[in-house]
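Anyone? Bumping this.
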Amino acid sequence: MIELYTWSTPNGRKISIALEEMELDYRVHPIDIGAGQQSGSDFIARFPNAKIPAIVDSETGVSLFESGAILIYFAERAGRFLPPAGSERWAVLQWLMWQMGGFGPMLGQAAHFLHYQPGKSDYAAERYGNEARRLYAVLDGTLERNEFVAGDYSIADMAIWPWATRFDQQGVDLAVFPNVRRWFETIAGRPAVQRGFAVPDATAEPPALAA
Amino acid sequence: MKLYCMPGTCSLAVRIALNEIGTSFALEPVDGKTKKTGTGKDHLAIEKPTTTFVVIDEFRKARP
């Protein structure tokens, strides 16, 4: 049994989507970050970076934070969505690291300055808005050549897709990125993704794209 | 194996790892302002998006 500590955020949803895709047994522990529950002493004692998502695997005793590490752990445990060797494996890890280092941190800053704190800093809004569009252009380029980012559907797609659901807050128009749009709808149609998206907020649904 | 690198960037971590492993590799510095490599090639034409380092080995050659 996997104990999952999470909230309704892109990084949290990566993990619940992966658990659903891999059909691993898990129990949800909602951590309300709006109420500061991640700063509680019990949570910090186990997860010193005080961020969700985090997991404990009661069968193996493994305790992990950082969503990228958790995705690799699950993929190796389940033997799915990450090829065991060869160029296909490195392509998946390359795009997973691209998400962890760019298509997440930069999009979070874009949403902060464009959506949550508009008008606070024109410089920051322009800087992160431009970087968001550059990252979507990179994603669109790889999806022009491949159905999924690294060829077959993988943990890299599970990491990238939840961040793309917030395109509106990031100042991004998906009509400009037709390959991203096609990939976005393909993944949004997966039943496991829809179940994972609704953790821990059971009413949450991915945004419907305009026709 | 060839490592495209720039002093003072993340490419240092890859260079250290290659040295620790003891594998042989060629270094090709990239100018951050002109985006040209040490041999005058356009780094942006080698890899998009622009990154401070790119490791090219057999698997990359096999994957366009």
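Late reply, but here is one note on the structure posted above: Chain A is about 55% helix and 10% strand.
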